[in-house]
Write a sequence for this structure.
């Protein structure tokens, strides 16, 4: 299964594609930044730890304060609801399955993911031996990437063990 996400036009300099490579049992994340594709292999262990840590940080970092009485306060918010609202209009979409001619010979094996979350955005740094990439996502786009990771990990059969919320990885594509 492959998933693709294109941020809104004002942020369209980055496109993310994600697919599971069955023979290697890894996820292949392709970043298209400024027209240049860069590929990253994500192992099962790294992906499951990364998503679990990301979920913890999302819960810990409050949404920005909005002075509207009908909105829930940051402390009373529901992360499942935030996730569903984030995916309502621009969630990940099924991408065409890559053919057998499509290889990932230049893909770097991601060894570390560093995250910095704020109420408004999420900065991700992917690190490999000699490679690094910085991805800045809005809070909404971060939910889209999380959903992509969960959908593809679920399809790959990786979610038997982790204790992730039931609402994650259930979007209809």
């Amino acid at each position: 299964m492959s998933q693709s996400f294109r941020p809104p036009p004002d942020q369209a300099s980055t496109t993310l594609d994600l697919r599971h490579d069955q023979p290697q049992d890894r996820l292949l994340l392709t970043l298209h930044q400024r027209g240049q594709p860069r590929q990253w292999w994500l192992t099962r262990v790294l992906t499951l730890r990364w998503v679990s840590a990301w979920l913890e940080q999302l819960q810990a970092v409050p949404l920005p304060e909005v002075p509207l009485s009908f909105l829930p306060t940051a402390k009373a918010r529901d992360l499942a609801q935030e996730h569903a609202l984030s995916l309502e209009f621009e969630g990940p979409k099924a991408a065409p399955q890559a053919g057998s001619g499509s290889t990932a010979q230049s893909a770097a094996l991601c060894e570390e993911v560093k995250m910095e979350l704020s109420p408004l955005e999420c900065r991700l740094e992917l690190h490999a031996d000699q490679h690094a990439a910085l991805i800045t996502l809005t809070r909404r786009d971060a939910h889209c990437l999380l959903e992509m990771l969960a959908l593809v990990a679920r399809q790959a059969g990786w979610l038997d063990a982790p204790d992730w919320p039931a609402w994650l990885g259930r979007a209809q594509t």
